Amino acid sequence: MSNPAGAQLPGAPPVSANAPAPPLRHGYLAVTRCEHGVPVTTVNPHLDSLTRIETEAHEAAHRRQLAGDCDARLRALQADLALRLDREAEAYCGGLAALGLDSLRYGVAVERLRLALYDVFWPRPQSEVDARITAYCRRPDDGVARKSVADTPATSSTGPRDP
Asked: Which of 132, 109, 108 is CA-nearest to residue 120?
């Protein structure tokens, strides 16, 4: 699988040659934020091709999640940790799927995913993270329907939590 320099996945936002990308926080491969009500992604330009494919697919999921009323949806994600866990699990599973991996069947891929989400969402119980991974990473042909952004309301009933 190749991704020539400068090539973008379908749905990737156009890159403006005139506007410099904001710096990424330490350790981040990419970030999607709202600019003028529209979700915009910045990707680390130094990623290898496979990491770039996975990262662009992950961020494409975030752009879909924020589409519509980007600022309001982003505020909801920041205020509701359970909702954010849902959205991150969906995005991570989408990134693995872009590589052609079934994250529930490839140990290294799913363990990397689990560890990342355990770290980001600590002190939430690991069983809650595992349940989200199982819900979002199932293949469509395995008898369990994969959840999508459209299946989940924009807010959660668990209430706001500190990140």
From this structure: 132
| Joined tokens for residue 7 | 């090539």
Tell me the one-letter amino acid at 104: L
User: What are the strands, taking DSSP E only, across the chain?
Assistant: 30-35, 38-43
DSSP, collapsed to helix, strand or coil, labels residue 30 as strand
User: Position of tokens 């991704």?
Assistant: 3
Peptide bond just before 123 cis, omega within 30 deg: yes
Q: How far apart are CA 140 and CA 3, in angstroms?
A: 26
Q: Residues 15-28: pLDDT tens digits?
A: 444 456 667 887 78
Tell me the torsion sign for CA atoms 94, 100, 106, 111: negative
Q: What is the mean pLDDT of the chain?
A: 73
pTM for the structure as a whole: 0.66
